[in-house]
Specification:
By secondary structure, this protein is mostly helical. About 45% of the residues lie in helices and about 5% in strands. The protein has two domains: about 30 residues; about 90 residues, Cytochrome c-like domain (Cytochrome Bc1 Complex, Chain D, domain 2), CATH 1.10.760.10. It starts with 6 loop residues before the first helix and ends with a helix. The structure holds heme C.
Length: about 140
């Protein structure tokens, strides 16, 4: 039998690690739900989503329709894009690819910021194109 005077200490001793475990579990659950915007993606698109974050694309491009430093990439595939200096282009996969590999080749009208070119392997570009294509 534990004397009553020792109970609080004992409780603290037991509760301490429990609280720590709960906090770790909660933060793990939070980081799992980190992507709150955009549709769930799988396969190559999921790899592209990862690259989209690690290469800083997300700093300038939203995937939920909101405007940023650069245009949102939601619904881009198949849409008509107005270009700086006039004219439009249909955003097919070749256009997405070119926009990533050689950003200054075709500039979207209305955006003054310059998109930096990144060192990406062909398979990384494929994955990014798959991801952007999945953003309906
Ligand atoms: C510093 C901000 C910035 C970063 C970082 C950036 N972009 Fe951009 N991006 C822009 C701007 C501004 C435009 C529009 C002007 C243009 O066409 O260059 C653009 C245009 C695009 C377009 C064409 C959009 C359209 O509506 O036609 C695609 C696709 C694109 N970016 C993908 C990416 C990807 C993928 C990455 C990461 C590898 C990335 N961007 C990183 C600023 C950025």
């Amino acid at each position: 039998m534990v004397p009553p005077s020792r109970l609080p200490k004992l409780l603290r001793w037991v509760a301490g690690p429990c609280v720590a475990v709960v906090l770790v579990a909660a933060s793990a659950a939070c980081s799992g739900g980190e992507e709150s915007s955009g549709p769930p993606v799988t396969g190559a698109a999921a790899e592209g989503q990862q690259l989209f974050r690690t290469n800083g694309c997300a700093a300038c491009h939203s995937v939920d329709g909101s405007d940023g430093v650069g245009p949102t990439l939601q619904g881009l595939l198949g849409s008509q894009v107005e270009l700086q200096g006039g004219g439009t282009v249909t955003a097919d996969e070749a256009y997405l690819r070119e926009s990533i590999v050689n950003p200054s080749a075709k500039k979207v009208a209305g955006y003054s910021a310059a998109m930096p070119a990144r060192e990406l392997s062909p398979s990384e570009v494929d994955a990014l194109v798959a991801y952007i294509s999945a953003l309906r």
